[in-house]
Amino acid sequence: MGYRQECFQVFPLVVPADQTTTITIRALYDHCRLEKNTEYEVAYYPKEYWTEECKRKTFFLRPQGDSLVISHHFTGEQEHVFTVTYEQDGEEQSVGTFSVYSLQPDLFARRPFKGDLHMHSYYSDGRQSPAYVGAYSRMVGLDFIAITDHHQYAPSLEVQNAFSEVAVDLRMFPGEEVHPPECHTHLVNFGGSFSVNQLFQDRESYRHELEGVMQGLNPLPAGIDPYEYASLVWSLDKIREAKGLGIFCHPHWVTDNRFNVPRPLLDYLFEQQPFDAFELLGGIAPQCNNLQVAYYNEQRAHGRIIPIVGSSDSHSCLNHTRLGAIHTIVFSPTLELQDLISSVKELYSVAVEAIPGENSRVYGPLRLVKYAEFLLRKYVPLHDRMCFAEGNHMLDYIGGNEEAANWLQACKGQVGRLMDKLWA
Ligand SMILES: [Zn+2]
Ligand SMILES: [Zn+2]
């Protein structure tokens, strides 16, 4: 009978490649205690870079207190698997299978942050208040969000204000879904320091600037409305001026019996890439995501370099296939806005679909997908458990529970401390 792995903690869990690091496998509870006089057999397997000679190595260890301590040279960037067994009455018993991931320096210097860069509140067509959406986002395991209501920037600030007087680790950034006038294509301004939608209010000066953009355009391929293309270029330039990330959203969303973005415009947008990131996964419909992934793969095969995000585009926290399920993991040095934005632009992000009860799927560069898949198994459950508790306290706080501020204070920094322990 093997113990459930949750009975043990492995730390560090992520180590530098091509160095010797000491890892500890610690039994957390009495029922999985390691016996001090027992010899445990450890078998080591490098998952990816193996040869006939090194594919399995075994050695024996006695526990140090409640832990097995292993010093090992972790070769290359890959997962390393350790199985631990012991003998009882002539029969082999399993303690468990444990893993560690080794990384090259660029990725090792980064931490995984789970974010949702596109979601709605009741100020547009969502169901709940910004504060409720914020609390719920933490409950489902997000490290950062932006509320991006249609045409509106203020709700993204309202959620910040709702928690401004308590200790919360969820980062809430400004944002909005940007809809240039008479333009079908949807954009998200993630993190921008001002509202781009607001600039459309002064219609005269907007049209004047747009004229300038249209005059500067190269001849457009057939089937593209120059006015629509120019308004996208103008809006994305403004998002960058605001130091935000300009996201191109859901081109394969079916609305009015047609895709949201006509094919010639879609192709030209990928050729020119006036946007900063493509919303590869959204929460609108699985079919939409299937097409977007196929389109992205073809574009990548043509040699295009495409930063990506995944966002729920949530309209209700209670829809479990959206908020928390569709998200981005950004591998960033910190959880600060500009670090997150540049990490996405430098291709350090993956889009994740983790619908409860289904197998998770990760999309993006293979190197990051492999690492993210390991994190979804070994790190994310620990992370999400902490977030769930914090999010509950956030809900209590906005619901008027006077003790909740103290509970939040007690939780402050716990995810950061978990990372400090798990990253060597
Ligand atoms: Zn939209
Ligand atoms: Zn939306």
Q: Which features does this protein show?
A:
globular, six-stranded mixed beta sheet, alpha+beta, TIM Barrel, Immunoglobulin-like, 12 helices, five-stranded mixed beta sheet, 424 residues, binds zinc ion
Indicate the CATH topology of the largest domain: TIM Barrel
Q: Tell me which ligands are bound.
A: zinc ion
Total individual domains: 2
Task: Supply the CATH superfamily name of the largest domain.
Answer: Metal-dependent hydrolases
**Residue runs with pLDDT of under 50 for 5 or more positions:** none
Span from first to last CA? 31 Å
CATH class of the largest domain: Alpha Beta
Strand content: 25-35%
Q: Calculate the mean pLDDT score and round it.
A: 96
Structural class determined from secondary elements: alpha+beta
Q: What this model shows, in words?
A:
- With 424 residues, the chain is an alpha+beta fold.
- It has two domains: 5-104, Immunoglobulin-like (Sandwich), CATH 2.60.40; 111-411, TIM Barrel (Alpha-Beta Barrel).
- The protein is 32% helix and 26% strand.
- The chain contains twelve helices and 21 strands.
- The chain has a six-stranded mixed beta sheet, sandwiched between helices.
- Helix 7 (286-301) links the parallel strand 17 (277-281) and strand 18.
- Helix 4 (203-216) crosses helix 5.
- The protein is globular.
- The chain binds zinc ion (2 copies).
- Residues 118, 120, 177, 313 line the site of one zinc ion.
Would you spell out the secondary-structure blueprint of this structure?
Layout (H helix, E strand, L loop, with lengths): L7 E4 L2 E3 L2 E9 L12 E7 L10 E5 L5 E8 L3 E11 L2 E13 L1 H4 L2 E6 L13 H10 L4 E3 L7 H9 L8 E3 L1 E4 L8 E4 L12 H14 L9 H16 L3 E4 L5 E2 L2 E2 L3 H10 L4 E5 L4 H16 L6 E3 L15 E7 L4 H9 L3 E5 L7 E3 L2 H13 L1 H19 L5 H8 L2 H9 L2
Parallel strand pairs: 2-8, 9-10, 10-11, 14-17, 17-18
Antiparallel strand pairs: 1-3, 3-6, 4-5, 4-7, 7-8, 9-19, 12-13, 13-14, 15-16, 19-20, 20-21
Helix pairs in contact: 2-3, 2-10, 4-5, 10-11
Bound molecules: zinc ion (ZN) (2 copies).
